[in-house]
Amino acid sequence: MELRKNCCFSVLSPDFTITCIIITFTIVILRVLYVIYQSGKLLHRSAAEQPLSTLIVLGSGGHTTEMLNVLSALGNDRFTPRVYIAAATDNMSLLKARTLETSIAERSGVREISARFMQIYRSREVGQSYLTSVWTTLLATAHALWLMIRIRPQVILCNGPGTCVPLCVIAFLFKVVGIRWSSIFYVESIVRVKRLSLSGLLLYQLRIADQFYVQWPKLQRKYCRAHSVGCLM
Amino acid sequence: MEETGDAVKEKKLVFVTVGTTCFDALVRAADAQDLKGELLKRGYTHLLIQMGRGSYIPTKSAGEDGSLAVDYFTFSSSIADHLRSASLVISHAGSGSIFETLRLGKPLIVVVNEDLMDNHQSELAEELAERKHLYCARPQNLCHTIASMNLESLLPYCPGDATPIAKLINRFLGFPDD
């Protein structure tokens, strides 16, 4: 055993190993930079009218109302099939989404709703201790990965619940690895006038969101890559 | 609504709502005697308090001999009806409650809960107050706000519109403009 190990190391000299690591690292960095560069550009598709599979991450209360307002304004036949995700402890949001989907289905004369509704574990509930939240964060990340592997959306719409961060990070990694190219749209909630939310700040600074929208001009002046779109409520 | 006798005074309701939160400071401020006096002076006849999960119980009053009629409840599925029948709404700073009231075109005072840890909610109330769509107050200066407010100076709020953002998203994804 000892001999073979030595032999192995003699073939791969330390210099060679280090060079390999540096090359791999450089390739990864270049790929990440390329993905960031490409993400900011308009999407060029060969079939511009083809619908895109869409993931909608719902928050609670006001967040959901804002997101459903955006959805109502988007062309439903362009963003299909749709998948909704909300926190496992939040039943109201999915209920509201189901109501919207039912009205869409009724308008187009379809009996069955084609959209899917899923729930995701939250990494940390309000008031949970930090010690146990290490474990729950791991669990939530694994769950997010499992959901994203199943959905592999082309478009992601989110507006601020903490649950959208792991989902968007995974979507970004999918782009880097080449599993699925997706466009990530982040809409900051109307309640944020002067400062971004933590989720928003992360996705903005890490350049994970392809397009970043804010509702107040004050916020746009502070974060110049964001687009000011006016109030949604 | 119609009352008999010489008290055919028009009902003017002030509706206080804390939503699903616990905001005893607001309920206590609304229950204060000087605030009720101020409301009476301004011609309001009824005060209805939705107290949510709070533990402070306001004092009920039938509103005899010209005093303010006070009533309260914890939760109700018909908040929208109460908002509609109100002449003045005093609300916590939740965005749902704010925009629902503004859409109904009701005069609104938003009271910011300073006990909340991450108090970003005051940002929205202050911005909308700066734009003269509502008054923004704290529990301790609510009475003063009511005494000094001029509801005529409030501007109606035009509900938001999602078409600009929809246009940007569609364009980014290469969908042709409609």
From TrEMBL, chain A:
Signal peptide as annotated in the record: none
GO MF terms, alphabetically ordered: N-acetylglucosaminyldiphosphodolichol N-acetylglucosaminyltransferase activity
GO CC annotations, alphabetized: UDP-N-acetylglucosamine transferase complex
UniProt keyword list: Endoplasmic reticulum, Membrane, Transmembrane, Transmembrane helix
Membrane topology: Single-pass membrane protein
GO aspect biological process, one term: dolichol-linked oligosaccharide biosynthetic process
Record's subcellular location: Endoplasmic reticulum membrane
Sequence intervals crossing the membrane: 16-37, 130-149, 169-187
Family the entry assigns: Belongs to the ALG14 family.
Protein known as: UDP-N-acetylglucosamine transferase subunit ALG14
Organism of provenance: Rubroshorea leprosula
Lineage of origin: Eukaryota, Viridiplantae, Streptophyta, Embryophyta, Tracheophyta
UniProtKB/TrEMBL annotation, chain B:
Pfam families: Glyco_tran_28_C
Database matches in SUPFAM superfamilies: UDP-Glycosyltransferase/glycogen phosphorylase
GO biological process: dolichol-linked oligosaccharide biosynthetic process
Record-linked InterPro entries: Glyco_trans_28_C (IPR007235), UDP-GlcNAc_transferase (IPR052474)
Domain Glycosyl transferase family 28 C-terminal: 14-158
GO molecular function: hexosyltransferase activity
Cellular component per GO, a single term: UDP-N-acetylglucosamine transferase complex
Gene3D superfamilies from the UniProt entry: Glycogen Phosphorylase B
The name this protein goes by in its record: Glycosyl transferase family 28 C-terminal domain-containing protein
Taxonomic path: Eukaryota, Viridiplantae, Streptophyta, Embryophyta, Tracheophyta
